[in-house]
Give the backbone structure.
Amino acid sequence: MTGALMVQGTSSGAGKTTLVTALCRIFADKGYRVAPFKSQNMSSYSFRGRDFEISRAQAVQAIAARAEISPHMNPILLKPLGEYRSEVFVRGRRYKSMHADEYYKKFALGRGLAEARMSLERLRGEYDLVILEGAGSPAEVNMQKYDIANMRMAKEASCPVLLISDIDKGGTFASIMGTMELLGRDRRFVRGFVINKFRGDIGILRPGFSFLRRKTGRPVLGTIPLLRFEIPEEDSLHASPKQVSFTPGYLRRLEREIEHLSRAVKSSLDMKAIGALLK
């Protein structure tokens, strides 16, 4: 296997980070050299290596993949400062503080996109499989021009996209259909859907699966139950993240949680169909 797979979401907090973490471990367990990648991540919580700093989420995903944590896994980190300003890190090193307007209009499509492309290409040259994570939603029409974390990266990698939605929030089928509609031609990259945080009788959902298949031509490739696990969340909607220290003791606990998560997700997904997308 040599390729890439991307996870995008219908909204922030849909479960992208969790699904990528689980997939990193699932494919690593199959013997593949796997790396996570998120071109741009906005987070107050970071991992500090010997001479670099990246999002904590990509560091945890690298641990799940049994890969060495690298600044190329998160080439652009935005640490919010307030008042629409962020501290910008490029490939793990502090670049400068920027206002959102400056970032999007002067940095994102220039140096930002160039750095993301370079890091993605480097990882693809070193690993069998790169699992990309999008940011927020790919269907924010007011921001699509400057979006370097979603469909631009899918195009760069020429990879299939799994679209995940949080059913616990409600409105899952509408959010999936609306996202597909707003993606326009880019919807061709979406190859299947994943329903996240479900509780109840899955039989009740099946008519909705058939509806999505008729309307979009894409299948639902899994329904992940609402899981309890102690893997640090991103500081996104409804999340209550905590600072963690990557001590040996914490890493042992994290390993147990990753194993628990990956087993639960693996049993909930059609891994045969997902594997077929990569051939």
